[in-house]
Specification:
This protein is mostly helical and 173 residues long. It has one domain. Helices cover 63% and strands 0% of the residues. The protein contains six helices and no strands. The chain has helices spanning 2-25, 67-81, 87-118, 124-131, 136-142, 147-169. The radius of gyration is 18 Å and the shape is elongated.
Length: 173
């Protein structure tokens, strides 16, 4: 049973981390506080979960392209080998984490695209690369982008991520 507790911890930690990013992409975990829309967070009061979302095939993160998924798959494979869980359950768990990671990446890209554009970057990937060595204030100062313009870009990104979430997860806005 030790392995089962570890499995729950691994999957729960991954889901919480991905869920936090997903929730942040559409206004937080709920309520009508700052940035909130009363949505209640992904999987919130409407009973939605990752299963309600349809990720386009070309945007689904694969095990081959993600070291995170590779580590989870290896761990699940060990549990199957030790007969702690069935192969079918391991495949379902991996699929759920794969879908959550894909959704997180899609929403992050939607949220950051207007910010990247406002700062003069050709892509979100270019913005993310720049953020590895500088903070956002430094980049905005260097590019002469006002705080108001940056705030407007974040608001536009928030709306874009919300629209993408509604599109992929069949949520009525």
């Amino acid at each position: 049973m030790r392995a089962r507790g570890q499995l729950v911890a691994v999957v729960a930690a991954g889901a919480m981390a991905l869920g936090a990013g997903t929730a942040a992409a559409h206004g937080g975990f709920g309520g009508r506080g700052p940035g909130g829309h009363g949505f209640g967070g992904f999987g919130g009061p409407f009973g939605l979960g990752i299963a309600a979302c349809e990720i386009p095939q070309g945007q689904l993160v694969t095990v081959a392209s993600s070291t995170y998924l590779q580590r989870i798959k290896a761990y699940l494979d060990d549990l199957v080998a030790d007969k702690e869980i069935t192969r079918a359950r391991a495949d379902r768990l991996l699929s759920r984490v794969q879908k959550a990671l894909s959704l997180h990446r899609i929403l992050t890209a939607a949220r950051l695209a207007p910010v990247a554009k406002a700062l003069g970057f050709a892509s979100v990937a270019d913005l993310q690369a720049a953020l590895r060595s500088k903070d956002l204030d430094q980049i905005a100062d260097e590019k002469n982008v006002s705080e108001t313009a940056l705030r407007d870009a974040f608001r536009a990104g928030h709306r874009a991520a919300r629209a993408k979430l509604e599109e992929l997860c069949a949520i009525d806005g």
